[in-house]
Structures are given as C-alpha cells and as structure tokens.
Specification:
CATH superfamily of the largest domain: CoaB-like
CATH topology of the largest domain: Rossmann fold
Number of domains: 2
CATH class of the largest domain: Alpha Beta
Strand order of the largest sheet: 5-4-1-6-9-10-11-12
Shape: elongated
Strand content: 25-35%
Mean pLDDT: 93
Low-confidence stretches: none
Number of helices: 7
Order of helices and strands: EEEHEEHEEHHEHEHEEEH
Number of strands: 12
Largest sheet: 8 strands, mixed
C-alpha cells in the first residue's frame, strides 16, 4: 500500500523569531509510520522540524513543513504526483493563523481613526457594526517588522481561521482509506465518541481515532477507534493504537 501520514503540530509565525504552536510531539504518528513500514508499505510522512521522526529507510519519504499553509501546499503537491491507498491525518493542525500584530498604542490610534469617520455612534447597532468594520480593516494591516519590538505593555495579535485540512482529503483522494483524529480534554467517553462520530460523518472518514488529553501519559495513550458503521475499538498505548490503525486500514483496503 502507498500510505500518507501527517504528524506533529503546525506552527504559525508571529514574526521571524516568534510563533504560536501546540504541544503535539508526533510520537503517535511516528509509531503509526513505523508499523506501516514494518509491514512493507510505502510511507510518505509529512511532519514538522520539532516533532520526532521515524528512522529513515528506503520505503520512507519524509517532508517537513511548519505552517498550515505549507501543509496544505505540500499535500496538494503530493496529490498531484501520486495516488494514496491510505491517509492517516494525525497532525495537530492550528485552527488559526496570525493575521497581524499591533502594539496597544498603534491599535488604539488606528481604531480611533476609523471610528472618527463614522456617524451616529450613539446607536448601539451602528456602533457594533462600525467596530466590526474597523477591526476587519485593522486586521488586514500588513505586518512590517521582522521582529516585533518588546517595549509595548500590551501586544494585540489578530488571528484568522485556517482552512480545515481534513475537509479536503476525501475530495482530493476519494479512493483512499481515510483516518482522522480528534483530541478533546476532560470529557466523558460518551462525549468523546459522540464528537468523534460527528467528525467522521462530516469529513467522510473511514475511521476516527478519538482521544482525551487527560488519558495520554508518555506511551500510555488511550484511544477509541470509530468506524463508519458505528463500531468502536479501544487501545491503551501508542503502539497498540498504531497496530490497530494499520490492521483496520489494511482490512478496509483489501475489501474495497
């Protein structure tokens, strides 16, 4: 099988020396990749410089990205070049990316300047609409500084929503066995399964690995694998999850 795996966590740049990221280590993705490789499959592995990587071997192609935009571009390039039998999208993708950054003084100056051109701000509806327009315009301010000065007491960071990478996978590779991941924090098993099923249906996945951050401690990693038929299977470690996913993807691929 020809397998694509995403792993690790994307970072979104604030300036040339600062970024926003998440705590994903890529250890689960690494375990999944190593299990597929051990079974003789070809693996294309998209990950980040900070994440752990599987050891290089002849059946492994490793591609590093940092931002969600870079991930999207790398995926589209791969989809043009080859067809995948399975896609394991375990990467923790940033929901938001940076739009611009302003000091408190500059933000207030720009907002006051925008509102000064508005009329009848005594009406709450007009004021609300004017604020929305002003924030939208300010958010589009081009970030000039390569390193934002640290002299301001407050730094206002504008974030805009990233595209959902998982939403495009089925469209781009309709033949692939698709495995998505959903991480929640401190919820009941019932809620974890409910949300996982919702994500599975919304993105037309074959499987979703639903897990709770509070159930992840080193190699101990409880995960619930849901399939499109409503069945669930539970694993207790990263290696068990990896083997479960590989077995299910292989089985689904053979039966297509």
């Amino acid at each position: 099988m020809n397998i694509l795996i995403t792993a690790g966590g994307t970072s979104e740049k604030i300036d040339n020396v600062r970024s926003i990221t998440n705590h994903s280590t890529g250890r689960l993705g690494k375990a999944i990749a190593e299990t597929f490789l051990a079974q003789g499959h070809q693996v294309t592995y998209l990950t980040t410089p900070q994440a752990v990587h599987p050891a290089m071997e002849s059946n492994l192609t490793l591609i590093e990205i940092e931002t969600t935009k870079e991930l999207e571009s790398a995926l589209l390039t791969q989809f043009k070049q080859q067809t995948f039998d399975g896609i394991i999208h375990s990467m923790a993708v940033s929901d938001f990316t940076t739009e611009t950054t302003l000091s408190e003084d500059i933000f207030i100056e720009k907002l006051a300047d925008k509102l000064a051109t508005e009329s009848d701000l005594s009406d709450l509806t007009n004021l609300t609409e004017a604020l929305y327009r002003s924030l939208d315009e300010i958010g589009q301010t081009i970030q000039q500084a390569k390193k934002i000065p640290s002299g301001t007491d407050r730094l206002l960071l504008f974030l805009k929503k990233n595209p959902k990478i998982i939403a495009m996978l089925r469209e781009q590779q309709p033949q692939a066995v698709l495995v998505g991941f959903k991480l929640l924090v401190g919820v009941s098993t019932e809620e974890l399964i409910r949300v996982g099923r919702s994500i599975l249906a919304k993105n037309d996945c074959d499987f979703i690995l639903a897990n709770d951050l509070e159930d992840i401690h080193g190699d101990q990693h409880k995960g619930i694998l849901l399939d499109a038929k409503g069945q669930t299977e539970t694993a207790q470690t990263k290696n068990e999850i990896a083997q479960l996913i590989v077995n299910k993807v292989e089985e689904k691929w053979r039966n297509q």
